[in-house]
């Protein structure tokens, strides 16, 4: 049913045979070393066979940099590592949707409301990114953010916070469109300036 205990991932790595492989992850192709062990994880999967995939970046290392457990017995290990790397962008999306759009903060009680609120927030996330990619992006956006907040010394690409801030400014400016005959009042101008400042504070936070 169980067999002898194989030990922790570190103990497995100490005796496992690693082979060189190339994996695509985080937008680049990396040469790594991978080992596979087929075994049982009785406490979690009972008698279902699993694969433990160990990855190390440095061939001279004796430990491991990543350990994965999967019930997929057929997909090559390098492909599974690529799939795992995809997860980072998904998790980043969830975090940004919670932080900037309030996803997951609603105090819903009915089933329909619970099932609709978070998907709606993710739809809004998608709309913001698509708007920025097709209409809002400017090559100087990242440089402008570095100028306003110089502690971002290595910032090279706009973040979702930058996209939402720019969309807010665009929506506010559209409310005071110059195509109308009248000119904005002093209070309206101050309201726009306050909103711009608040958008910058929201991004910094």
Care to describe what's here?
This protein has 205 residues and is of the alpha+beta class. The protein contains 7 helices and 4 strands; from the N terminus they run αββαββααααα. A hairpin with a 2-residue loop joins strand 1 (19-25) and strand 2. The mean pLDDT is 86.
General form: elongated
Whole-number radius of gyration? 25 Å
Structural class: alpha+beta
Order of helices and strands: HEEHEEHHHHH
**Biggest sheet, open or closed, and with what strands and sense?**
4 strands, antiparallel
Give the distance, in angstroms, between the N- and C-terminal Cα atoms: 53 Å
Helix content: 40-55%
Unreliable runs: none
Approximately how much beta-strand content do the residues carry?
15-25%
**Care to count the β-strands?**
4
Give the strand order, joined by hyphens, for the main sheet.
1-2-3-4
Q: Determine the mean pLDDT.
A: 86
- Per DSSP, the total helix count is 7
Structure, briefly:
It is built from seven helices and four strands.
Primary descriptors:
7 helices, 16% strand, 205 residues, alpha+beta, 4-stranded antiparallel sheet, 4 strands
Helix/strand layout:
Elements (H helix, E strand, L loop, with lengths): L8 H7 L3 E7 L2 E13 L1 H4 L3 E8 L9 E5 L6 H25 L9 H26 L4 H8 L11 H16 L10 H19 L1
Antiparallel strand pairs: 1-2, 2-3, 3-4
